[in-house]
Write a structure and sequence with these properties.
The chain is α/β, with parallel strands linked by helices. It has 30 helices and 33 strands.
């Protein structure tokens, strides 16, 4: 036997190298084979419920890091809640209708307008299902547990039926109407867009000053005056039907170069400079209210332009006179209703002029800018043309500009229940406080919701038309359609004639002959996903409404958060969520948006192949997601170093409790050594802090707390001197078992705490805890923070000791630099304390030399002032470091004067303490001696 064989050197098969990319798929298979998600649900049956309702990602393409951040965050919450006393089922969902899928089919060569519609819809469905399968596999590879075999899809018949019922209830309350007014129109998508589908990009646009000659000034102005407008959309001049003036502004008639122009008086100086007018002469001033009902001539068409009043006219830019095209501007439309102007919108679905704009037929609207400007110049109506860069609305899918275009559309009237939504916004718990303000302002300022889309792949609007064109939406018809959709899916709308979609024997005054037609438009996909509270939470009997939490990216204030609360308040009068948590966007390491064109994208699969999913999950826990977050392979590499620290700590704890049976070897708290009591209380405080952080969805606090505990409390202190106990002391000694008791509790409970964030590593570690009854760590419960009497005093004393220890370590480092000692075990430390320090050392009642990892520790009877000159002085003590007397013990490596003095020749190389352990535990050594 060698000396090292008498030591309790911790041994474990738990590998130092994680090998996560290779191991994680096996763990995920084990979870699936063991039906781990289902087993956790069974364990939680009857407990209070916690519903995190999944916002559906769009089923198109592999997942990106934004998806990973979202799904991992949800998994952390659901895993924690499931282990913390809640029944927390998690049903993942997918948004499966809409334009992107149609675009993918177009890229594959499918031409919608040349195909049978039902065949085309089937191709859309197959594509969507393929994308769902692909993304489901991606999400599983991140270690996300969910009801993967029963997700909700917006294309499922039961979901579509629930959506129709939401529409029906809104229609029944009078919230649904058809109107023709300007809405966002995407020529690139050939469809209307909701506000949530708009994003802004900088573009270079033409701006023009145009003069409209007067036709009838009501005798108040010279008949040869010209009204000057400014616009950034020259292509809308063919649609001009009027000019707005503010009733309260003063307007000047200005003589310039033989012409007379009308502009707002306050804008004269700016406009004169812009148009390079020299010495303009003001001939007359008139109130805007006096201009009302004057008439001008259209610059190049034979029609009139009415001068009107509107309060929205400003003096921020332009001339104080606003070009009015009711078919292409929301303000223009609403303000001109008073004057009963027609709504002219001579642009077709694809953005080309129609024959309502003579001379421009078949020309793309953007090209119209040049032609219109040329015509105006020929008519001497163009006073100035220049270009400027400004922010302009774009289709968020195609990234191409949108226009305002008046077309017949179906709307949901927000005005009718806007205040109800705002009241609910006030009641919701916004985890990120500014989220409330953001959504409140959006709801307050939004117009009516355009819910119709001119596409094929989506849920049809369940609207019929009578013989006279009257829309028919009744509770009877919508419920009948809902039942048909539940049985056959929404494709039945396209398979059957209108009469076969109506209840048997249905009659309506609008169709005396019993002839009906049906709506061809589909619903906005935001109505699809915005109905998920009904299609999922209300449809599944093991879920409940409203949800406890909605968690999505910060872009969903204009999207899912918005559409969901709109439909829910409209139907139920309450928000569909009790709390909302939003997260920022994922940017690259330099803070740039990830883009394929820049080449800075990171695919989650690349991360899991190189580092493993647990590293990605640890990154999610380490960041502040309230704002945008940065990620790069270098950042993930740094996270992997933190992971290595966690793993090595777990490995040390496993190795040094491998011979510990908690049922047989555990020491009662009262019998623990003081330092072990302290560490148990310290860990108890950590558990309390982490439970609170998890409850508040503050993953970064969980992360920082764990890392701080592992680094400062364990590695730098407790586990630093632990070797001198668990390695050196006799296997069953009270000192060793006391420390092992604490180590085991920390190991066991730390693994549970880590399950939500590092499930693969936690489950791997759990396999080494053979005394724990659960087969998986996820089936255990979160550690409860215990109330330990006297813990505050204990923590206070030990914090003072750690401050004392810092001073000793400083003195030891000084002695090391002076070559007085090498390792700290070569030192004898003598302190000269004041009474406070002396009392502290008595209170902690510990082997201080062991805690400081020195060979001898002496408390002198002399006060601080009597310390030798060579001692390091502090306010409350002096510290003298000397090289310890004696020889180094070959077993414990302490320098001790008893080494070499044992009567037994075979024990002379040991100190008295180690010799006693060997005599007791390995008596054969007394005769046989140690091997070399």
């Amino acid at each position: 036997m060698k000396i090292k064989d008498t030591l309790n050197l911790g041994k474990t098969a738990f590998p130092m190298r994680a090998g996560l990319p290779n191991k994680e798929p096996n763990w995920q298979k084990d979870w699936a084979d063991a039906t781990l998600y289902e087993k956790r649900q069974e364990l939680n049956e009857g407990k209070p419920s916690f519903m995190l309702h999944d916002g559906p990602p769009y089923a198109n393409g592999n997942i990106h890091l934004g998806h990973s951040l979202n799904k991992i965050s949800k998994d952390i919450i659901v895993r924690y809640k499931s282990m913390a006393g809640f029944r927390a089922p998690y049903v993942p969902g997918w948004d499966t209708h809409g334009l992107p899928i149609e675009q993918q089919l177009a890229k594959a060569g499918m031409k919608r307008k040349e195909m049978d519609l039902l065949d085309y819809l089937e191709e859309c469905r197959k594509y969507a299902m393929k994308q769902v399968d692909m993304q489901r596999s991606d999400f599983k590879s991140l270690g996300v547990l969910a009801d993967w075999d029963r997700p909700y899809l917006t294309l499922l018949p039961e979901y579509e039926a629930a959506q129709i019922r939401v529409f029906g209830k809104m229609a029944e309350k009078g919230y649904i109407y058809k109107g023709q007014k300007p809405i966002y129109w995407s020529p690139s998508s050939e469809s209307s867009l909701a506000e949530a589908e708009i994003e802004y990009q900088d573009v270079r646009s033409a701006s023009i000053f145009v003069a409209f000659k007067a036709k009838d000034t009501k005798g108040k102005l010279p008949e040869d005056v010209e009204f000057v407008i400014w616009t950034t959309t020259p292509w809308t001049i063919p649609s001009n039907l009027g000019i707005f003036a503010h009733p309260d502004y003063d307007y000047s008639v200005v003589a310039v170069n033989g012409r007379k122009f009308v502009i707002a008086s306050e804008m004269l100086e700016a406009v004169a400079e812009k148009l390079e007018w020299e010495n303009p002469e003001v001939l007359q001033t008139i109130k805007g209210s006096e201009l009302e009902y004057m008439v001008a001539k259209h610059p190049f068409y034979d029609r009139e332009t009415l001068i009107m009043n509107a309060d929205y006219v400003t003096l921020d830019s332009g001339t104080g006179l606003v070009h009015v095209a009711p078919g292409h501007g929301e303000d223009d439309y609403f303000a001109s209703r008073k004057y009963k102007l027609p709504v002219l919108s001579p642009i077709d679905n694809r953005g080309y002029y129609t024959d309502e704009a003579p001379g421009l037929e078949g020309l793309f609207y953007d090209e119209g800018n040049k032609v219109v400007s040329k015509w105006l110049e020929e008519k001497d109506a163009l006073l100035k043309l220049e270009f400027f860069t400004h922010s302009y609305p774009h289709d968020w899918r195609t990234k191409k500009p949108v226009i305002f275009r008046a077309t017949p559309q179906w709307f949901a009237s927000i005005d009718d229940f806007r205040q109800n939504i705002l009241d609910e916004v006030e009641r919701v718990d916004w985890v990120i406080p500014w989220g409330k303000t953001r959504l409140f302002n959006m709801v307050r300022d939004r117009g009516d919701w355009v819910i119709s889309r001119q596409r094929a792949w989506g849920v049809p609007l369940p609207i019929f038309y009578g013989e006279n064109g009257e829309p028919i939406i009744t509770p009877e018809t919508t419920e009948h359609v809902a039942k048909l959709f539940a049985e056959f899916g929404s494709k039945v709308w396209f398979e059957r004639e209108a009469k076969d979609l109506l209840p048997e024997g249905f009659t309506h005054p609008a169709s005396p002959n019993g002839e009906f037609t049906k709506e061809k438009d589909i619903m906005d996909v935001w109505f699809d996903s915005g109905s998920s509270w009904n299609g999922v939470l209300n449809e599944r009997d093991y879920l409940s409404f409203p949800a406890d939490l909605y968690l999505e990216g910060s872009d969903q204030y204009r999207g899912w958060f918005n559409s969901s609360i709109t439909t829910s308040v409209a139907v139920n009068g309450v928000a569909p969520y009790k709390a909302v948590l939003s997260q920022g966007f994922v940017l690259d390491g330099k803070g740039r948006k990830m883009s394929k064109s820049i080449g800075n994208t990171i695919v989650p699969k690349d991360v899991t192949k190189k580092f493993g999913a647990d590293i990605l999950r640890l990154w999610v826990a380490s960041i502040d997601t309230e704002s945008d977050v940065r990620v790069s392979m270098d950042i993930l590499s740094q996270v992997s170093e933190v992971y290595r620290k966690i793993r090595n700590t777990l490995r040390f704890l496993i190795a040094n409790t491998s011979d510990f049976n908690p049922k047989e070897d555990a020491i009662d708290f009262a019998e623990l050594r003081p330092v072990d009591k302290y560490m148990l209380v310290k860990f108890n405080e950590l558990a309390k802090q982490i439970r609170t952080a998890y409850d508040n969805y503050s993953f970064m606090t969980v992360y920082k707390s764990i890392i701080n505990f592992i680094t400062n409390d364990l590695s730098s202190f407790y586990l630093d001197f632990a070797k001198d106990v668990v390695y050196i002391e006799a296997a069953n000694s009270p000192e060793r078992r006391s420390m092992q008791t604490v180590m085991y509790v920390i190991l066991k409970d730390l693994v549970k705490i880590l399950v939500p964030i590092l499930p693969h590593t936690a489950e791997e570690t759990w396999t080494y805890l053979e005394h724990e009854p659960e087969n998986f760590a996820y089936l255990a419960e979160m550690p409860e923070a215990a109330e330990i009497p006297g813990s505050e005093e204990l923590l206070g004393n030990w914090q003072e000791f750690l401050d004392f220890r810092d001073k000793i370590l400083k003195a030891l480092e000084s002695a090391r630099e002076a070559k007085l000692i090498g390792k700290s075990l070569e030192a004898t430390v003598t302190i000269y304390p004041n009474e406070v320090v002396r009392t502290l050392l008595t209170a902690i009642d510990e082997n201080v030399a062991q805690l400081l990892i020195v060979s001898n520790f002496v408390v002198a009877n002399e006060p601080v002032n009597n310390a030798p000159e060579s001692a390091m002085k502090f306010d409350d003590l002096a510290v003298l470091v000397e090289h310890a007397a004696g020889e180094v013990c070959d077993r414990c490596r302490r320098t001790d004067e008893t080494v070499g003095h044992n009567a037994n020749e075979h024990l002379k190389m040991l100190c008295e303490h180690c010799a006693h352990i060997v005599e007791t535990e390995f008596p054969e050594i007394l005769e046989e001696g140690f091997e070399d």
